[in-house]
């Protein structure tokens, strides 16, 4: 899809495409006034700006639209609309050892228990082992610090997905 194609979509279709990039209803609504967008750089800037103007509730909603790192079954079933992107983003997990997958599952469980939301990381370009290391490091954070990191990671994911949408 080109930027022009995105710009001329009916509002409901535009919302659906934006929602694939970021699962926050509020962020999608905040993005609508920026269409038609003049260029990709402006769109990415506006997307980031609007993301950081969202509330914690909005960020938490976006997090629920991601599969857990390493949970390939969930990826295929629950996240069908973004499964192609997410499986590419988590592609290295498919080649991970059983030991690493078990450690990711345990880490995801510990993380969610501690913070109340799933571990969010921009997985693009990272090995399963790197993601596991990040997960384990971030488990030592307090909730305030971790929320900042998680929302930054979601912003990275949104930026990448907007670029994929328009490639």
Quickly describe the structure.
The protein has 10 helices and no strands. It is an all-alpha fold and 167 residues long.
Question: What structural keywords apply?
Answer:
65% helix; 0% strand; 2 domains; 10 helices
Describe the structure.
The protein folds into 2 domains: 59 residues, no CATH class; 86 residues, UraD-like. The protein is mostly helical. Helix 8 runs parallel beside helix 9. The protein is 65% helix and 0% strand. The model has no long low-confidence stretch (mean pLDDT 90). It is globular.
Radius of gyration: 16 Å
Question: Which term fits the overall shape?
Answer: globular
Instruction: Compute the average pLDDT.
Output: 90
| Count of discrete structural domains | 2
| Strand composition percent | under 5%
Q: Based on DSSP secondary structure assignment, what is the total number of beta strands? A: 0
Oligomeric category:
single chain
Strand/helix succession? HHHHHHHHHH
Q: Under the CATH scheme, which class of the largest domain? A: Mainly Alpha
- Topology-level CATH name of the largest domain: UraD-like
CATH architecture of the largest domain: Orthogonal Bundle
Tell me the distance between the termini: 6 Å
Query: What would CATH call the homologous superfamily of the largest domain?
Result: Oxo-4-hydroxy-4-carboxy-5-ureidoimidazoline decarboxylase
Contiguous helical run count: 10
Largest sheet: none
